[in-house]
Amino acid sequence: MTTPVQTAEGTRRGTSVRAMLTDRQVLAWALYDWANSAFATTVMAGFFPVFYSALSAELSTEDSQFWFNISLAASSLVIALAAPVLGAISDRGGTRKHFLATFTMLGVIMTASLAWVHGDMWVEGLMIYVLAQAGFAGANIFYDSMITDVAREDEYDQVSGFGYALGYVGGGLLFLVNVLMVTNPAWFGLDGAGEALSWSFISVGLWWALFTLPLLIWVKETPTKAEASGVQAVREGLRQLRETFSHIRQLRVVLIFLAGYWLYIDGVGSVIKMAVFFANRVLELPQEALITALLLTQFVSFPAALFFGWLGRRIGPRTGILIGLVVYALVVFYAWGWLSSGTGFYYLAVAIGLVQGGVQSLSRSLYARIIPVSRTAEFFGFYNMVGKFAAILGPLLVALVPVMIAAADARDAILVLVVLFVVGGALLTRVDVEAGVRAAHEMDQADSIEASNG
Q1: Which of 9, 243, 290, 353 is 20 to 30 A distant from 58 in Cα terms?
Q2: Is the pLDDT of residue 47 over 80?
Q3: Which secondary-structure segment (H or E) carries 7?
Q4: Whole-model pTM above 0.85?
């Protein structure tokens, strides 16, 4: 069963894709992906791994990779532990936009602060990067959950895909400008690549802040039943969190999905965060090839994310995700056994671009279907918690394989990601989406009755 969505222009009852994607609230929500993808592209996937590699030049390759991956795991652990608590509190207080703005501000300030890191300040650089990632990941908890404020259940796949598509274009456009700044600093009146890199970090912070404003201004949160405030919101939120552990056990489909998602999204996140560092430090590929490959990924991902949104509506999000996981497993095998040149890295980038946004957006839309609308931020807190715990496992396994297995090297370590894709996909095949939707609606009805009586 679906219901009309209250938009900035009124109640949208039609099913036109054009009307849906041009609705002001949908567009404002999707523009946040355009905003924060600048961090994901320029900083997380693009410049910081190479920047960190230069900062840590005094360390061995093994030590440099070890501290990089351990720092990623630590950042993810903090957000993973905080995510469900924050989600529960915001559900009870009706403050998802406030939390999103707070974490975004943290990410913006820390990203811009990277402009003042230089020389051998690899420790300081990692600490600032960890805080920027915390802002990025924390804000996403509330951004993801707000899809239920702007779209109906039957629109989730395409609206989610639209957000990722805008993210790839926005992130890709600023990344292109940043690459031109670094490779041709004189065009921008800059003294050299170092100054250009500093201004790139600052530009990401400004871009992120500017394009967050439409969501904060135009997206209207769904009113929270029995809304609390202040200390009461914290108390009620923590109580609701305790109850959710029991509710998730009742929602068997959600439990199976989260187990599979935990494993396969770990592989996806590890590829995104580690590909450039792996190619630069382990395979010693030229930096020009890495930058070009990242741009290829961004602009291939734009139409691919839109296509997967359409595909999810036609064949179901679960099948679409499984297609993407097969491609990811093949990509890792290729990187392990055959990748040795910049041209090969281009092929890998295109393959990842075809499925990256699809796997992420369809996972978000599938999950939105099988959770109760009355508990969206809370349940998306668990969703993001699982994703962040997954981001701990991947980098940690890749870091430890060469340490624990004498015959393995840094290249062999990436094969552990194939296991994550295979086992995660196997669990996903056991997710009964229709049963999950029915169970979520039943819980919503029970919550409504409880709120009316209480």
Answers
A1: 290
A2: yes
A3: strand 5-7
A4: no
